[in-house]
Amino acid sequence: MSTLEIKDLHVEVATEDGPKAILKGVTLTIGDGETHAIMGPNGSGKSTLAYSIAGHPKYDVTGGEVLLDGVDVLSMSVDERARAGLFLAMQYPVEVPGVSVANFLRTAKTAIDGEAPKLRTWVKDVNAAMEQLKLDSTFSQRSVNEGFSGGEKKRHEIAQMELLDPKVAILDETDSGLDIDALKVVSDGVNRFRAKEGKGLLLITHYTRILRYIEPDFVHVFVDGRVAEQGGPELAERLEAEGYDRFTNASV
Ligand code: ADP
Ligand code: MG
Ligand code: MG
């Protein structure tokens, strides 16, 4: 079972001019096995929502709650959130020079499970994940994200998600900058994850393109730190046709 509840979330970020309110009361529940898409214009606070749930120290939660299967997430450390079953694929994955993909994955898996994975099955699982994501056999020996192409970064994020096997995954613009072949490979990986029992998915995207491959159960339109409208997959189609103008004008 996995349910992620976000209740009236208010978040500020520290800027040179002092704290700035970014999220202004976000309420949304990802039920067991559901896929939700958050769409919205640049600067509407989508990444801020993702970082806040993952526990990035720069984002100050000033109100509201986040519960994973009824347990308070906001009082947990970043590590505890990952162990509880939350995973975030960042919009801009960070480089970790000197740490190989293989070591990084094994360390993360060990930290999350509380014990090292059995070597033989683990190596098999890693190789299978790499192959499915069309990352070549030398990829595991490269430093995390160092010199990776845009597509390699995103495919590596999906490999992490599949291997770490969280309860709820948040993918922040994992589709951005991908060509059509890479988009298909990434979407296939996401759909493999979704096919497992009870996995929650929060898919943050600026474009409707990925939603043709990964059909969401619900779509939320994010404007100025709030959910401006929600609906089913048909809402994404309307956005495709109409753009965000209608929402941004209405929010002034
Ligand atoms: P989105 O992901 O929807 O494009 P973001 O969450 O990245 O939006 O940003 C929302 C707003 O918060 C923007 O105005 C952005 O400039 C501001 N913001 C986000 N993070 C920071 C930060 N670390 N420092 C200063 N401003 C930030
Ligand atoms: Mg942005
Ligand atoms: Mg963003």
Notes on the protein architecture:
The chain is α/β, with parallel strands linked by helices and 252 residues long. It has a single domain, classed as 3-Layer(aba) Sandwich (Rossmann fold), CATH 3.40.50.300. 36% of the residues lie in helices and 30% in strands. The protein has 8 helices and 12 strands. It has helices at 46-54, 78-84, 101-113, 119-132, 150-164, 180-195, 233-242, 245-250; strands at residues 4-15, 18-30, 35-39, 59-68, 71-72, 86-89, 96-100, 143-144, 168-172, 200-205, 218-223, 226-231. The strands form 3 sheets. It has a 6-stranded mixed β-sheet, sandwiched between helices. Strands 2-1-4-5 form a 4-stranded antiparallel β-sheet. Strands 7-8 form a two-stranded antiparallel ribbon. The chain starts with a strand and ends with a helix. The structure holds adenosine-5'-diphosphate and magnesium ion (2 copies). One magnesium ion (MG) binds next to loops. Residues 4-249 form the ABC transporter domain. Pfam families: ABC_tran (PF00005). Keywords: ATP-binding, Nucleotide-binding. Belongs to the ABC transporter superfamily. Ycf16 family. This is Fe-S cluster assembly ATPase SufC.
